[in-house]
Amino acid sequence: METIEQFTVRRSSRARRVRVRVEPDGSLLVTLPQAARASEADDAIEQLEGWIASRRANLLRARSVVARPDGTLPYLGELLTVSEQPGRTSAHRSGDELLVPADARSERAIERWYRRSAKAEVIERLAPALSALAVKAGSVSIRDQRTRWGSCSSSGALSFNWRLLLGPRELLDYVVWHEACHLVVLDHSPRFWALLEQHQPDYRAPRDWLRRNGSALSL
Asked: Residue 29 burial (CB < 10 Å; 0-12/13-18/19+)?
């Protein structure tokens, strides 16, 4: 069978079926179970051709929503000017500037800065939410999930995606409250949504924004 286009294949011992994902840059990642034939990746791409085209069209539209000028990076609805400094090893914000290394270390330094900043922003928002709900959280971690913006475990451990800082401020506010409410109601039952609406009456707008445009939130 002729391959219809270029894609990356990853084998996973945890995968039970073939999965196709459209990455933020529009490329394709195919995850195969260990025992799957290599040709199953081509089959999946061909069968999902229409879905892939639709996902890419949505991604292109979302990119136009989050487009920013060259030489800038978003931060909770603001734009920071990126300034390279020779000899610098880490990223640091100074006013409306983000000072970064002037070499190949820049990208990792920027992501590390976003992760540190995300932890501080989350903690700032989480404290009043926990107080209002009269609950306590377990550990709080910052991650780089590809398909989730936050999570709450049965033990009360919370995690948040640092990429939320690349969107409007309301997104992070919403996700923090969403996960905090899971400390009271772990599922997505009507009781959960009613509790969230009680504390965040306008939660639908940021939720829907993430559904439409979240895939384009990347550096």
From this structure: middle
